[in-house]
Design a protein that fits this description.
Low-confidence stretches: 1-21, 328-333
Number of strands: 0
Oligomer: single chain
Shape: flat
Structural class: mainly alpha
Helix content: 55-70%
Mean pLDDT: 83
Distance between the termini: 29 Å
Number of helices: 17
Length: about 325
């Protein structure tokens, strides 16, 4: 878009304050960075961009090419030991045969559905728990609320492997829950090596980050707005729905997308606590690559997970764009 030149009166030019043909300070043209400044900024930002391109972007392109049948070049070594590959004989050709074979497998379709369902269920549970903690901390100022906010981030400092084994033994057939229930004459369910244990473990690992994000967003709501809603006769649920929730929308979206994306690619928790079937795709990828000697199918799974995660990533990008472009957007919602 062309910016119109600023209008300078002849008297101003004659007085010597502004030279003829120049732009007064403070106008849009004077604030526009020069080409030299833009190039300097690009050079300063180029080292991390180059590292991401070399160590992340290039392997992704190689993997996608392998999934489309290109077994030469960087994929030559892995193609020598692989079996049941779909190959093409020219670099300009592409083949979706590997995708067709994988989606024709009932096991893969079942595991894909389980992975997406577990990701969505975990995300919903994490957001609900994080919002309950955030509201309790925001609306009450007691030792119990402060203790709860501190305990909510404890899982962040416990290794995932240790937490997975603890969850497995806690809910196994001879674990703590079954033992206590047996002493009380009751029969407790066995959740070890089940999808339920996977959901519990994923909620445990992702709740601290979501809690930190949402608590910070809820705490940023000014007291004056909450007091104004209360003075107008609104109930606590109404104030939360109409005042607090819109202003904490961006942190909630960011926490939800990070939880969903992290759950899609999780490996440790499903591997230790999950069943043999159905499995999440993170475990399936490792099995297909190492146990079944099907690296191409494993790469296809990775591409599918990447596409699903990109769908959640779009929401994350929107939330960041909204918060960066219009800081008052949440206040106006």
């Amino acid at each position: 878009m062309t910016v119109p030149a600023a209008t300078v009166s002849p008297d101003t030019v004659a007085s010597g304050v502004v030279a003829p043909g120049s732009v007064p300070p403070g106008t849009a043209s004077s604030r526009r960075p020069s080409r030299r400044h833009r190039l300097t900024g690009l050079l300063l930002a180029s080292p991390p961009l180059l590292l991401v391109a070399v160590f992340v972007g290039f392997p992704i392109l190689v993997a996608v090419a392998y999934s489309l049948g290109h077994t030469g070049g960087p994929n030559a070594t892995v193609s020598l030991i692989a079996k049941d590959q779909v190959t093409v004989d020219a670099w300009w050709k592409q083949s979706l045969g590997a995708y067709t074979q994988l989606f024709a497998d009932d096991r893969f379709r079942r595991d894909l559905v389980v992975t997406v369902v577990v990701a969505l269920l975990t995300t919903v549970i994490v957001l609900v728990l994080a919002w309950v903690i955030a509201l309790y901390v925001r609306l009450t100022d007691t030792w119990a609320s402060r203790m709860l906010s501190a305990l909510a981030v404890v899982p962040m400092f416990i290794p995932v492997v240790i937490a997975s084994w603890a969850i497995l033994t806690f809910y196994s057939s001879d674990g703590f829950v079954r033992s206590v229930a047996s002493h009380l004459g009751l029969t407790a369910p066995v959740w070890g090596y089940t999808t339920t244990a996977v959901v519990i473990g994923l909620v445990w690992t992702h709740l601290p980050f979501a809690t930190l994000m949402i608590v910070s967003g809820v705490q940023a709501v000014p007291d004056a707005l909450i007091e104004a809603g209360r003075d107008a006769g609104a109930s606590i649920p109404r104030v939360v729905w109409s005042v607090v929730a819109p202003m904490a929308l961006v942190p909630t979206v960011i926490a939800g997308t990070f939880t969903a994306i992290g759950t899609l690619g999780s490996f440790t928790v499903p591997y230790f606590t999950g069943p043999n079937a159905p499995k999440m795709l993170g475990v399936d990828m490792a099995d297909y690559f190492t146990s079944y000697n099907l690296p191409q199918a494993s790469v296809v799974m990775a591409v599918v997970v990447f596409v699903v995660a990109a769908g959640f990533g779009v929401v994350y990008v929107w939330a960041n764009y909204r918060g960066a472009s219009d800081p008052t957007a949440t206040e106006q919602s």
